[in-house]
Amino acid sequence: MKKVTTYIWMSAMVVLSVALFSAITLLDLGPSLKPIVAAANPTSGDPEFRQSFYGSFEEPLNKPMDVTKIGELIYVTDTKNKQVQVFDQSGNNVFKFGKEGADEGQFQFPYGIAGDKDENIYVADMYNGKISIFNTKGEFIKYFPDQDKVIQSPGGLRIYDEKLYVTDIKENKVYVLNLEGKKLMEIGGSGQDEGKFIAPNAVAVDKDDQIYVTDSGNNRVQIFDKEGKFVRIINGSKDGKGTPLFVNPRGVGVDSNGTVYVVSNLSHNVYAYDKDGNEVLVLGGMGTENGQLYLPNGLYIDDRNAIYVTDTINQRISIFY
């Protein structure tokens, strides 16, 4: 009887997490277009708000969900507009690609985004169940190989050391593949136990090859070694064993100093932790002013330790360093 009750509870949590994900990503509460704030060079101190951008006046961002930097350009999944927008470092729109549909180069729900060493662009379409690859001009090249349809609902993407890390939000797993599409490893499965997930949304890898996964439905970040073995949990409490501080964690990233940044979507913050899991910094807070966030989602840290956050309901990218 206990096993049946646990199964029913877990099923309800999965349904709730997916429903919450859908409701949040389709909200339409964004403010009007605001001016771009001038950029500055990264500093060695604690990161501060420096810059935000919203897209062009003709076509502002509409529910941006994820962001990455490839070369000197910033790529954003402009999810409700069913496209990817590309910006220079001053926030000027350079070009965009994609449109609504299920054919090659089209999107239903573009979500995770990443780039390889050749500056090819990988875009996960959670609703189409595909990962598409584009060249630097935004021209469709091919679908990322997944002939066996192992990945059902691709979410967050990271490319590190010639490997693609991808979360499968519905299957509650993280897959690691080489860039030829061969599956090297899978982590997770549905549940609350260590090493299990409910709606994992994002993944990051640090310089020691440790893998960080936002386990959104369980309100925690789980850390694994390069072999996929569970290491520890970060959830904002001491040793990760107490009541979670995070509420629906989404994006995650690790800077060159080993500081871990976690987007807490429903508390409108980005929390930062040192290597021992101690909180060192909080960015954001609910609002529409510069430096504030409103249901943030994606996070990317570049090689200068600049932090890019998709401020979804404010319909902008906020940058801290």
Automatic annotation (TrEMBL):
Query: What does the UniProt keyword field contain?
Result: DNA-binding, Repeat
Any keyword Kinase?
no
The cross-references to CDD domains, in alphabetical order and at most eight, read: NHL_like_5
Q: Name the Gene Ontology molecular function terms of this record.
A: DNA binding; ubiquitin protein ligase activity; zinc ion binding
Pfam family membership, one: DUF5128
NHL repeat positions: 94-137, 184-227, 246-276, 280-321
Q: Which GO terms describe its biological process?
A: proteasome-mediated ubiquitin-dependent protein catabolic process; protein polyubiquitination
InterPro entries attached to this UniProt entry: 6-blade_b-propeller_TolB-like, NHL_repeat, TRIM-NHL_E3_ligases
**This protein's record includes keyword Repeat:** yes
The protein's name: DNA-binding beta-propeller fold protein YncE
